[in-house]
Structure formats: structure tokens, C-alpha cells
User: Which sequence fits this backbone?
């Protein structure tokens, strides 16, 4: 895929991995439409992208809310038309022993990490199909392959991201739409800082830019090839 002039939608784009992806896509020439939950953060990130001479727009959106996602999709389409790239990056983590995990913890984790994939993909995939194709990138996690103590809700949600991605890939590839699931290990981001479980040494983990580089690389392979799943780990954790 040629990213110069392509339209890319990135969720959860105001910090961490999502922000790094947005700036690297913009640096490659893509037009950005971003969203996150907090309006001031969206405005600040859009201004930062524009200051970097990247064509960008954005609005606040709760990616787990159907009405909010529909409004965001309408906004994005009005700005630039159907996207060629959709990056489902928004996510949260609630890390507690099962006995301390509330139903609200479980439901919010599933809503943001899994329900949003369905809502966002459904909102954009028809336009992608009509426009001749594109690529959907779902940010999963190595927790989608492995479990860890205190991660029942988070690990279950990221396993679901991989299952969703595998099934979607088989469904939409005939429409020239590629689906890529990216599984990072520990990444030094504000998300990691919010975790209540023991944190890895920040000097021995990935940077958000590392994950963004993998995403951009997966998008720029030949159109006849699809990278469907990628694990990215620290070299020497």
C-alpha cells in the first residue's frame, strides 16, 4: 500500500502506541482522522499533527458506544472519504485477582477492547469495500497468546481480539481488505504506568515508536501480500 495521500483512522490516538502510530503514518504522508475519549486531548493531538505538517482531523469518541462510533465514522468520511487504513488501537486494562475483579471491571474491559472492534470495523468496512480495499490493523497483545496473574479480564479480551482478527481476515480478504493483528509485549507508555501489577524495567521494554514502526511496515508490503499476525518483543527483557 502507498501511504502518501491515503486516509488513516486511528483510535486511542492521543497517547502511547496510538499517538506514535498516528505520527508515523502522518510522516509517511497519510491523512489522519483520530479519536480518543477526552476532547481536549484530541484537540491537542490534532494540533500537534498539524504542527508537524500532517493533514489531520479528530473528534472525541467513546469507541464502545454505538452512537458515538457512528458519529465519528460520519465525521471521518465527511472529512476525507472512506479510509484506506483503520487502526483499532484503543484499549484499557483492569489488573486484579479474579476475586477482586468487579463485573464493571469485566464489562468495561470487554467493551473497550472487544466491542469497539466490532463497532469500528462495522462502521468503516463497507466504505473500504466500495472503495476497492484497505487494511485493518488491530492492536492485540502477547497477552492474547499467554496468561498472567491478575490478567483474567485483559487476557480474555486480547485473546478475543486475535479470534476476531482471524475470522475477519477470512471474511474480507476477497474484497482486497487485509487484516493485521499486532501483538506487542511490554511497552513503555502511560498505559503501563497505570497498571497496578508489577511494572517491567522501562529501560528493557519496547517503545511506542517500535510498535508504530511495525504497523507502518505491515501496511507498506506489496498489495499481493498480507502479514496477518505479528509478535513484537523486547530484544533483551
Assistant:
Amino acid at each position: 500500500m502507498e501511504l502518501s495521500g491515503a486516509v488513516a483512522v486511528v483510535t486511542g490516538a492521543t497517547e502511547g502506541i496510538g499517538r506514535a502510530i498516528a505520527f508515523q503514518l502522518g510522516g509517511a504522508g497519510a491523512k489522519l482522522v483520530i479519536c480518543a475519549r477526552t476532547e481536549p486531548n484530541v484537540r491537542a493531538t490534532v494540533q500537534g499533527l498539524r504542527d508537524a505538517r500532517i493533514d489531520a482531523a479528530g473528534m472525541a469518541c467513546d469507541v464502545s458506544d454505538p452512537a458515538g462510533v457512528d458519529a465519528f465514522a460520519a465525521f471521518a468520511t465527511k472529512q476525507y472519504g472512506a479510509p484506506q487504513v483503520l487502526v483499532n488501537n484503543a484499549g484499557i486494562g483492569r489488573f486484579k485477582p479474579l476475586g477482586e475483579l468487579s463485573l464493571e471491571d469485566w464489562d468495561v474491559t470487554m467493551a473497550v477492547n472487544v466491542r469497539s472492534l466490532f463497532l469500528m470495523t462495522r462502521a468503516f468496512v463497507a466504505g473500504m469495500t466500495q472503495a476497492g480495499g484497505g487494511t485493518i490493523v488491530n492492536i492485540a497483545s502477547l497477552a492474547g497468546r499467554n496468561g498472567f496473574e491478575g490478567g483474567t479480564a485483559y487476557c480474555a479480551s486480547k485473546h478475543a481480539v486475535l479470534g476476531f482478527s482471524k475470522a475477519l481476515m477470512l471474511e474480507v480478504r476477497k474484497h482486497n481488505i487485509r487484516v493485521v493483528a499486532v501483538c506487542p509485549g511490554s511497552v513503555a507508555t502511560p498505559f503501563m504506568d497505570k497498571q497496578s501489577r508489577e511494572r517491567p524495567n522501562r529501560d528493557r521494554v519496547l517503545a511506542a515508536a517500535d510498535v508504530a514502526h511495525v504497523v507502518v511496515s505491515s501496511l507498506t508490503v506489496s498489495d499481493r501480500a498480507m502479514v496477518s499476525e505479528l509478535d513484537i518483543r523486547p530484544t533483551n527483557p
